[in-house]
């Protein structure tokens, strides 16, 4: 419970609205990824398991419960992306799909900007090939 005498820092997870919002983000995001010419071909036809892992991961990454690590251990996300050629252009495409997804679900612009800023670091960190 929040106690006004002892305010706790709010997580991005809480700020965006918790589980329901993370679920909507993921649902709006993957159709855009799949139809993107630069990154769509990297993903399997059955996208449901990827969606689920992303839901677990983003929950934890935004400061919610550590759902991904409970199931899969240490995220090691850069290592998990090494099998795929990730160029700066692909990182831009991934972030572009996320930006569109946030607009589609109606996230307030300032919050959407915060979310995108938070994702930018990892996206460019996963780049493992020159464009
Ligand atoms: C930079 C551009 C990115 C590309 C091109 C990309 C591409 C991919 C691909 C191809 C997969 C594997 C799908 C499969 O076959 O299972 C994957 C998995 C995943 N990606 Fe990304 N990704 C990018 C950025 C990100 C970012 C920024 C995040 C989160 C901060 C992220 C989170 C994940 C997660 C959680 C998985 C599932 C990992 C697992 O198997 O447990 N990705 N990504």
Automatic annotation (TrEMBL):
<keyword id="KW-0479">Metal-binding</keyword>
<keyword id="KW-0408">Iron</keyword>
<comment type="similarity">
    <text>Belongs to the truncated hemoglobin family. Group II subfamily.</text>
</comment>
<protein>
    <submittedName>
        <fullName>Globin</fullName>
    </submittedName>
</protein>
<dbReference type="GO" id="GO:0020037">
    <property type="term" value="F:heme binding"/>
</dbReference>
<dbReference type="InterPro" id="IPR009050">
    <property type="entry name" value="Globin-like_sf"/>
</dbReference>
<keyword id="KW-0813">Transport</keyword>
<dbReference type="InterPro" id="IPR012292">
    <property type="entry name" value="Globin/Proto"/>
</dbReference>
<dbReference type="GO" id="GO:0005344">
    <property type="term" value="F:oxygen carrier activity"/>
</dbReference>
<dbReference type="InterPro" id="IPR019795">
    <property type="entry name" value="Globin_bac-like_CS"/>
</dbReference>
<dbReference type="InterPro" id="IPR044203">
    <property type="entry name" value="GlbO/GLB3-like"/>
</dbReference>
<dbReference type="Pfam" id="PF01152">
    <property type="entry name" value="Bac_globin"/>
</dbReference>
<keyword id="KW-0349">Heme</keyword>
<dbReference type="GO" id="GO:0046872">
    <property type="term" value="F:metal ion binding"/>
</dbReference>
<dbReference type="GO" id="GO:0019825">
    <property type="term" value="F:oxygen binding"/>
</dbReference>
<dbReference type="InterPro" id="IPR001486">
    <property type="entry name" value="Hemoglobin_trunc"/>
</dbReference>
